């Protein structure tokens, strides 16, 4: 028997087939583009991406015709929803979290739902990146679509529904709407009443790892799947990443090193709202029962991509022509010592605690002898420094982070992971499978189908660790001093950078 994990992101979807001991047997990836019909708009063509997901599933099933798939589950991006009819027709595109639509409702919502009141119910504060403002925009500006919609489904729920499952949503994704009561594990009647969103338009919430249907006979035939494949409720992609690298208990944290770097700590007791709000941190259900997560994030791989395209355009062109990655060669140029430059990673809107939108990136300390590799080293140091500010304040909330697991594309670089370990002064362990979203979804599928008695058993069976990067204590002490220099940049340069960004 095998398990199928599906991960649907903003720019691509991946489907992977796993054995029950965690070996990846096959995978398929499909990339797609974000659409921008008007300036400031960002959406996905749900019909096209549904075809991409089906094609990826069919690719894996066709290459493994004898695979006996016990169950599948879906990990997905957070806030975006898809409007569907009761007979599983797609009614419109999916508005993404960074789309500007919905900003007009923020002032009224902030007045109706002041910070601590909303946080006490939902674990978040008002922002335009959540589902609520997009639903309000559709309700006001596309009333016919709103009226025709049977359910607005997050992407994990949408893919499962199109495969044949009931229209439900797991707790972690429900939380991304701003309408979910994190304590009652249900939609908040108070928040629905305050915002005017109809409960009937929302799917019923369920825990992750729950059987929610089987792949329909018609869909199974089209995709090359055997009859009776069970569909299990999935999770928000950050939660799935955590499961896929074994971060399931308090004191452990994912160090996600993708387009954004995101540290996801796990905790069992919800901190006081004011302690989280002042740090810009949310509280969200983990895929694991009775566990919660929060997200500490900022730009990550996107800055290294900018560096590649700016400082190594010719190397990139050659690499693409000859079908190899340029990143190993670029990271080989990084010096062993701390960089001579300090980078403020405000190249676009930042993450917590400040969520700065009106700033600019800064590279300080450039000299004639500064090498290209030192600039890259400064960039990866600056990314870690930004996250460190929040991580260092976590003990006051009661959240501990002692066991880090590195996943995502950046985690494949030994230099990058070691630099992070040195800056944080904490060991960071890298699993064998660093693209953890599909593995996490597969483990959820195994738990839901009751092949595994618990997440603990599923992780023990399927997650394998490759190596641990121990911090260099001497380097850590040097980084503590450099971190103090980094902390001075924003207070010193904030007003100027704001003026420069306008």
How does this model look, in words?
By secondary structure, this protein is an alpha+beta fold. It folds into two domains: 2-240, Nucleotidyltransferase, domain 5; 247-432 and 474-496, Nucleotidyltransferase, domain 5 (2-Layer Sandwich). Helices cover 39% and strands 22% of the residues. The chain contains 19 helices and 24 strands. Strands 15, 16, 17, 18, 19, 22, 23 and 24 form an eight-stranded mixed beta sheet that branches. A hairpin with a 4-residue loop joins strand 2 (12-19) and strand 3 (24-31). It starts with a strand and ends with a helix.
In a nutshell, what does this entry contain?
This protein is an alpha+beta fold. The chain is built from 19 helices and 24 strands. The chain folds into two domains: 2-240, Nucleotidyltransferase, domain 5 (2-Layer Sandwich); 247-432 and 474-496, ATPase, nucleotide binding domain (Nucleotidyltransferase, domain 5, 2-Layer Sandwich), CATH 3.30.420.40.
């Amino acid at each position: 028997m095998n398990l199928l994990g599906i991960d649907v992101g903003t720019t691509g979807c991946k489907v992977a087939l796993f054995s029950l001991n965690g070996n990846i047997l096959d995978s398929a990836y499909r990339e797609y583009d974000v659409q921008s019909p008007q300036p400031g708009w960002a959406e996905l063509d749900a019909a096209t991406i549904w075809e991409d997901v089906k094609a990826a599933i069919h690719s894996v099933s066709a290459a493994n015709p004898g695979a006996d798939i016990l169950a599948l589950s879906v990990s997905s991006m957070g806030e975006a929803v898809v409007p569907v009819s009761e007979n599983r027709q797609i009614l419109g595109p999916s508005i993404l979290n960074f789309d500007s639509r919905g900003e007009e409702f923020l002032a009224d919502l902030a007045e109706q739902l002041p910070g601590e009141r909303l946080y006490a119910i939902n674990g978040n504060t008002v922002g335009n990146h959540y589902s609520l403002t997009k639903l309000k925009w559709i309700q006001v500006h596309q009333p016919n679509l709103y009226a025709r919609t049977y359910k607005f489904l997050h992407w994990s729920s949408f893919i499962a529904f199109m495969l044949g499952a009931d229209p439900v949503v797991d707790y972690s994704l429900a939380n991304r709407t701003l309408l979910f009561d994190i304590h009652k594990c249900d939609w908040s009647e108070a928040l629905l009443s305050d915002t005017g969103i109809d409960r009937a338009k929302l799917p019923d919430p369920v825990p992750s790892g729950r059987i929610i249907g089987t792949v329909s006979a018609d869909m199974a035939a089209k995709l090359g799947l055997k009859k009776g494949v069970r569909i299990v409720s999935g999770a928000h992609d950050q939660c799935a990443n955590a499961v896929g690298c074994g971060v399931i208990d308090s004191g452990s944290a994912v160090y996600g090193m993708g387009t954004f770097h995101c540290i996801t700590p796990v905790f069992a007791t919800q901190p006081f709202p004011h302690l989280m709000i002042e740090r810009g941190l949310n509280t969200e259900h983990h895929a694991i029962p009775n566990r919660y997560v929060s997200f500490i994030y900022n730009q990550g791989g996107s800055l290294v991509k900018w560096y590649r395209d700016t400082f190594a355009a010719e190397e990139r062109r050659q690499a693409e022509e000859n079908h190899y990655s340029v990143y190993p060669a670029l990271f080989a140029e990084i010096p062993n010592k701390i960089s001579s430059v300090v980078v403020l990673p405000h190249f676009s809107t930042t993450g917590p605690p400040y969520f700065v939108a009106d700033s600019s990136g800064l590279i300080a300390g450039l000299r004639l002898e500064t090498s290209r590799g030192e600039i890259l080293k400064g960039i990866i140091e600056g990314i870690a420094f930004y996250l460190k500010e929040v991580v260092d304040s976590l003990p006051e909330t009661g959240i501990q982070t002692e066991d880090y697991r590195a996943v995502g594309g950046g985690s494949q670089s030994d230099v990058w992971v070691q630099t992070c370990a040195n800056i944080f002064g904490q060991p960071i362990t890298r699993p064998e499978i660093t693209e953890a979203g599909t593995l996490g979804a597969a483990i959820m599928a195994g738990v839901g189908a009751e092949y595994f008695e618990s997440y603990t058993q599923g992780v023990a069976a399927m997650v394998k660790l490759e190596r641990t990067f121990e911090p260099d204590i001497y380097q850590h002490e040097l980084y503590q001093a450099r971190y103090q220099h980094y902390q001075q940049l924003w207070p010193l340069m904030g007003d100027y950078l704001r003026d420069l960004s306008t």
